[in-house]
Prior knowledge:
Layout: H1 4-19, E1 25-29, H2 35-39, H3 48-63, E2 69-73, H4 78-86, H5 89-93, H6 108-116, H7 137-156, E3 161-163, H8 174-190
Parallel strand pairs: 1-2, 2-3
Amino acid sequence: MFSPAVIGHYRDMLDACHEYGLTPMVTLHHFTSPRWLMKLGGWTAAETPERFARYAAYVMQELGDLIPYVCTLNEVNLPDLLALIMGARESAASHAPVGVSDEVQTSSWLKRAALAFGLEENTEIHPFPYTFVKRGDFVETALAAHRMARAAIKRIHPKTNVGFSLALHELKNGERQRSLSRQHCAGKWVLA
């Protein structure tokens, strides 16, 4: 299931970091999910946290001696931040992710994505971390994935520093927007 060639590539990168005096921080998930995960429900599937923890454990078993810092999930609060900026998840859902297209959006890009994954056209997919997930289970799944991955990493390499990153944005509209941003975009994640 995991590629020894890819692990070898990253071992070379980590060795080079150490050789040149750089302290590496490895991000385990940076917006790209494998097709097989999408076919199994993506980032709203109940099994995703356990799958992600197995992946984190494998990476640490193979490379953990070279990794002092791990970021489990990159900008995990991005759905909340984009929904806040755009007014609601439903508004944000009408826009395709950067790089998909500037055409007038409906859910057509999601249908095309489902077909690209080999799924039926009307299958609801949830590629991390876009805002069209209307149910609350993305947040719970992401938090569970982080917690389970952190536990797996710490079992294998207890001294490794583990966290995730948050997306931040400039706030210009006063205290109300700052308060909303803290509440919806950072609060639940800061306590994770």
